[in-house]
Structures are given as C-alpha cells and as structure tokens.
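Could you help me review a protein record that somebody else here produced? Here is the record exactly as it was handed to me:
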Amino acid sequence: MPTSQQTSRRQFLHGIAAAGTASILLPSANRAFGYQTPSERPVFATIGLRNQGWTITSKSFGHADFAALADVDANVLAENVSKVAKSQGKKPDAYKDYRKILDRKDIDAVMIATPDHWHTKIAVEAMLAGKDVYCEKPLTLTIDEGKLIEKIVKQTGRVFQVGTMQRTEIDLRFLKAIALIRDGRIGTVKKVTCGIDRMEASELIPEVAVPEQLDWDFWLGPAPKVPYRALPELRKGYGGGVPLYSNCHYSFRNWHEYSGGKLTDWGAHHVDITCWALGATETGPSKVTPVDYKLPVEYKDGNPTVADRYNAATQFTIRADMPNNVELIITSEGDNGILFEGTEGRFFVNRGKLTGKPVEDLKDKPLPEGAIEKVYGGKVSANHTANFIEGMKARKQPISDVWSHNRMLEICHLSNIAMRLGRELKWDPIKREIIGDTQANSFLSRESRKGFEINL
C-alpha cells in the first residue's frame, strides 16, 4: 500500500497545473523575433555545448527553436552557434554567462549539459526564473542536491526532464525488458547485475597554462579553486580535440570534485532501468557494500590525498540490498548492460541487444498488446525531447522525473561514498540518510565556492 508521501507525489506528477497560477506555468507570450507561437514550438536555450550538449540540441530541432546558447569555452560556443544557425536557419544569441539566458522572458526552457558540478545551481536558478528544464544525467553531484531540486520543482511547478533517454529511445529495448519483467517472464526477480565499464587511471597531470578561449574560473564555478591541469596528448573520436588527460572538458568525470566516475555516468542509465523494472523508483536500498574496488590514488578520511591525477574508482563491484530481497550488483566487469535473473529464467539487455530464452520465447508467446505503452504510461514519444515538450504543453512531469532519478542516483552516490570511506553503509530510504555514520553523512552535501552559491 502506498504511503501518504508516495500518494501525494503521484498526485503532483499527474496534476502539476494545480501547483501555481497560469502566469507561472505557461510559457511567455513575448517571443524571440522570428520564432513561432508557444502552442506550436517552444523556444529553448542550451547551456553547456560540448558533446552531449550538441547531441541533445540537435535531436531537438524537430520540436523546438533555439534562441540562445551558453558556454564558458569561446571556441565551443562559436562552433555550436554556427551549427545551430545552419540547422535551423536562424542564428542563436551567444553568451558566456548562462544567467543572461535566465534573464530573458522569451525563452521557455533550458537544456543543461554542463559538467555535473554545475547542474543543480543552473537548474534551480532556471526554475526560479520561470523556465522548464531538461538536464543531462547524472542530475546531481550529491544526494542533498537532489532533495533541493525536488523542492524547487514542487515550489515552482516547472516541468523537469532528466536526460536518461534509455527510458524513451534505443529502439524501446529497455522498455521491452521492463515489460518482460512485469509480465512474469522470469518469475520473481532475485538478482540484477549492472555492468557499467571501468574508469581509466592517469599518470601525473601537470599544471599548465589555461587555454586562451577558456574561462577556467567560471568552468570551476561551485567547485574548489584549483590550477588547470593537462597533458599534451589530444583525445580522438567522441569528445575529441581536447587533452586526453586533464581536469576539464571530457575528463571531468574522472574527478570526484566534478562528477562521480562511472558509477554516476553509466550507473545513471542502467541503475535507473533496474529500479524502474523492480518498482523501486520511490524507495532505495537498505545497505550498500563495496565488495571489491580500486581507487587510483590514496584516500584519507574519504578524500584524495593528491590533486595531480584522476581520483574516481577504476574498478569496482558494489552490492546494494534492495527491497523484496533483490540483490543489485554494480560492477566494472563484464559486458556493459543489465542482467536480470529470476526464479524462472534470466535475460540481458543493453543498447545493442536484448537476449536470453525469455526473449526467444516471444516468437511463440508475444507480450500482451499495449504492454510497452503500459510501462511508459501511454504512447511512447518520438524521442526524449518530444516527451519533455509534451509534458510542457500538458503541464505534467515527463517520463524521467526528478524523483525517480534521484532515488536511483542515491544508490550510485552511496556506492562512491562507501568506496571512499572503505566500508558498508546502511541507508534509511525514508529519512534519506546514512544510519549511524556521521562521517558518511557529511558526504551527502558539499559547500559551494564563495561567489558561486545557489541563488534561492
């Protein structure tokens, strides 16, 4: 039976319009020159443009117009302004400071693809400025940041989509996996293994001059003030054109100051699908245990003792004790994807395949009609942005809401805290705090650097 808290949350998610007046909830009528009415196409802006920033922007051209872009790297900003202008036939305005975007009344929503340590500040300030928000995963750097975002979503009535696009896209492969679970194709789920790849270590990364086009102080933002570090070798392929080893740009995920390593990178995808499949999007684990792991530098009291190389875990096997006696294993070993094991079978799913006997059996015994739509809560959208805009128009939360995202991300954050402290953590999913461990609870939040606090 759902608790009163769960019931009120569901009511909020299905009827957000009751949270405020029309002047708060509806997009502004003052449109940017040349853009269409909000009933046809909303006006967007993207903040943070390398890699995933361009990806989510380019995937949205069929659904929204982009009036502005922001990035602290002048070269990245100029390149993306040119690409957006070419793609939509209108040149967006360019800013280094994202706050100039939030000041504009003609922008309905922002897409945020900055490094993780900036997500919460920008998202909260955007909602308070009357913008709906699409923010890349992982949504937060700490557990308490997630609680703050939830508070502001409820306070403002803004629509908020997290960029866990496996919920909508990837040929519906993950939706089919959840439908298999819910149709009892493997019986009672007993164990789930999430393979999320290893994180690489680095050699010593020296202090070097900051690239001329980069505002390093603004890039650091809420994080501690430290020197810029990089080695000369450049990254190739996805995310290429920047130093392969640095404490900036693509490599930020390797540092706890800015991210959470693979645990919050790929974990934000696969642990999300796992919790959705288990019906555990409104709760959490009772315990998180670091079974085996390797940190690339020495740690003392949960903090790295050196600052000249990557510090996120390179290898790990974490066990989370989930509701209904389900064992969740998060590991850097094996194939990237999710293995579901139950009393009557097992199957594996990732972005390239859905395999196992229960999948083969679909030839003779297909899923019930409408099973995937039932998982999704209605007709599946064309892409993750389309679902976001549908939510904007209906004034209801989209498929990847902040509550379910934060609940599963808490598992990933707790895994990192457990490795940094070298011990298992008992978790209270109702109070959302670590039981009987004052030191571990101190890692649930971080202080922002002076001058970069969240403006509430």
